[in-house]
Amino acid sequence: QVQLVESGGGLVQPGGSLRLSCAASGSIFGVNVMGWYRQAPGKQRELVAIITASTGEIHFDDSVKGRFTISTNNAKNTVFLQMGSLKPEDTAVYYCNYNIGTGWSRRDYWGQGTQVTVSS
Questions:
Q1: Tell me, what's the pLDDT at 97?
Q2: Rounded to 5 degrees, what angle do the CA atoms 94, 96, 102 make?
Q3: Alpha-carbon span 95 to 73, nearest angstrom
Q4: pLDDT category, 115, cuts 50, 70, 90?
Q5: Residue 18 has what pLDDT?
Q6: Looking at per-residue confidence, does 51 or 76 come out higher?
Q7: Rounded distance, CA 73 to CA 59, Å?
Q8: Minimal CA–CA distance to 51: which of 38, 39, 60, 62?
Q9: What is the separation of C-alpha 24 from the centre of its chain, rounded to a whole number of angstroms?
Q10: Residue 52 contacts by C-beta under 8 Å, 6 or more apart in sequence?
């Protein structure tokens, strides 16, 4: 089993910054992709940023390009989301995601989410 615990959310003014962290524990072998998703009230969960474990390739949603960065440590047991120039529309619950395994055993793991509120 894999456990993901997010931290770093909170209330921030427009234009401000926050850094989210996701600590992974358990059977984190064979990580394929790590990433962050978010879900605003009344909306579907959407991809924010992902990073491929083997190549370091990164993909951002267009709405956050140039404002957010994603990174991980060498052990691949922590993934960060540095958010800058925050806007009210960034308000959402942010979820950490790990995709682990191969073939039929490949699956997604999710954290419990951390609230980010951008408001003056």
A1: 98
A2: 150
A3: 18
A4: very high
A5: 98
A6: 51
A7: 17
A8: 60
A9: 12
A10: 32, 33, 58
pLDDT tens, position by position, 59-108: 999 999 999 999 998 888 999 999 999 999 999 999 999 999 998 889 99
Q: Which residue has the tokens 């234009």?
A: 15
How far the first Cα of the chain sits from its last, in Å, is 40
Residue 13: exposure state from Cβ atoms within 10 A (0-12, 13-18, ≥19): exposed
Return the exposure string of 61-91: e unless at least 16 CB atoms fall within 10 Å of the residue's CB, then b: eeebeeebbbebeeebbebbbebeebeeebb
Residue with tokens 């140039």: 66
Q: Distance between CA 112 and CA 120 in Å, rounded?
A: 26
Predicted confidence (pLDDT) at residue 28 exceeds the cutoff of 90: no
Token representation of residue 74 = 């060498």
Spatial distance between the Cα atoms of 38 and 49, rounded to a whole number of angstroms: 10
